[in-house]
Amino acid sequence: MKHIFIINPNAGKRDRTSAVLAMADHLRKEHHLNCECLLTQRPGHATELARKAAETGEEIRVYACGGDGTVYEVANGLAGFENAAMTCIPVGTGNDFLKNFGTDMSRFSDAENLWDGDVFPLDLINCNGKYCTTIACSGIDARVANDVHQYSGNPLLSGRGSYLTAVAANFLFKKISQHWTVTLDGEDFSGDYALCAVCNGRYYGGGSSPRPEARMNDGVLHTILIKSVSRVAFARLFNAYSAGNSSKLSDLAVLSTAKVIRLHSDGEEIVTCLDGECFSSQDVTISLADQHINFFGPKGCDCNQTAR
Prior knowledge:
The protein is an alpha+beta fold. It has two domains: 2-123 and 292-296, 3-Layer(aba) Sandwich (Rossmann fold), CATH 3.40.50.10330; 132-288, Sandwich (Tumour Suppressor Smad4), CATH 2.60.200.40. It contains seven helices and 18 strands. It has helices at residues 17-31, 45-54, 68-78, 96-99, 140-151, 159-173, 231-242; strands at residues 2-7, 34-39, 60-66, 84-90, 119-122, 125-127, 130-132, 135-139, 178-184, 187-188, 191-199, 222-227, 253-256, 260-264, 270-274, 277-281, 283-288, 293-296. Helix 2 packs parallel to helix 3 (68-78) and helix 5 packs across helix 6. The radius of gyration is 19 Å and the shape is elongated. It starts with a strand and ends in a 12-residue tail after the last strand. The mean pLDDT is 91.
């Protein structure tokens, strides 16, 4: 078996490549493992590296060393390959994926806790042919996430400053909602909506958990649609949405466990965010993926530890 560390040197506030290389070297020396370290060079490269390794047919364990974006890319490369399993070493700024593991999250920081962990399958979301591990969101929250990437290149703004600038730009100068044609398993729910979140996992956007009952291996997607509201109402209700208190959202929320969710816009394109990676389209189709990923973590860990 080969252990492959795919490292994003641009993840996080500082380059943690040397720390990951030291972990791999430790596994070689202490456990006589066949370890290989690969550095990503551009967006999407982790997907290419993971898929190329899986296509050899050799049994592999892949360590996604970065943030949620690196997990997203590696999962897209390994989906459907039974000879491959993946895990995550969090060295990025955003680690919402690992929040699903609750108190075990900190154990993922050391490869010594990972290399011999049990393998188990995780469901994936299929969104326009791309795979997502946790939450696919469309609407105002996705637009904020997309704008954060744009503002993060400004040398005058910190990471937090980029986020606050994106929030201000969307809430002060752009519409909160869009008119969407929406079908949930073919049933029409068309109207004006602020956002749609389809949840396989429970966390996104720095810790928001709109559907805390979502479980990552039960074959069920939990969707929440938030209807059009004023800026004041949206700001007032966002904490309830973020905490998963849907009962406080009254008739503003549409809850569903539909297997196929379709969104269409005749006007402005819909911005959709998959594990932090954004794209725009007038048509969005979301469903439970036919493929899954094999995942491994610390012994005894539970991907649904925080579910309620």
